[in-house]
Hints:
By secondary structure, the chain is an alpha/beta fold. The chain has helices at residues 2-15, 50-62, 73-82, 93-103, 147-150, 152-161, 174-188, 192-205, 210-225; strands at 32-34, 38-39, 70-71, 107-116, 119-128, 134-143. Strands 1, 2, 3, 4, 5 and 6 form a 6-stranded mixed sheet that branches. Helix 7 runs antiparallel to helix 8. The longest helix has 16 residues, at 210-225.
Amino acid sequence: MRRRAALAALAACAATAPGRLVAQPAPALPAVAVWDFDNQSPLLGAGEFLRRALPENLTAQLLRVPGLPVVERHRLRELLAEQQLAASELADAQARLRLGRIVGAARMVFGGFVVLSEQVQVHVRVVETASSRLLAADEFTGALAGVMQQVEPLNRRLARALGGSATPGVAYAAAAWEAYDRILELADAGRSDEAVAALQALLARRPDFQPAERLLVALLQKGTRR
């Protein structure tokens, strides 16, 4: 008995001895919010679904980063309504940063894209909300038809720039993103019941489409709070 007690005491001392490596949970990273991207294409309406699909695709990647709080799009839209702001008022970058601070995001991702014929160029930047300081910038050019799959390396680089690991993302077909974009348009217009029905239909076809699942939960929860 005494021998076992002595061994236990030695083990306890060793666990707390100076220089011993003890696994600790990773500290939480500063929260980030991702805005809708700006469509800067010369041809009006070209690739319009990318305005919401690209940032939602990036958000799906960032949500996989351990310890990285992400303010999702539906929360930003709710805050717009709470602050009684029109989406047009957010054309000013400073207004976006101010809203980001209100929602608790220390960093914000802004982006835009240009569609030229069958090609698309995507550019993004990470900005600190407190100081407006540019923290990182990156870009990608690829085929318009496959941009939602080809943009994944850019998403991984942004995850690293935000302090996370380059966790592989999940690539979804462009058709699923286009359907999801139409649903986001319904939700933005306040047509929540139609959006919920469309989300359920999309998930019946693509049960692995996680962005649709998250939005469905958010809309149902919002409905119960009314």
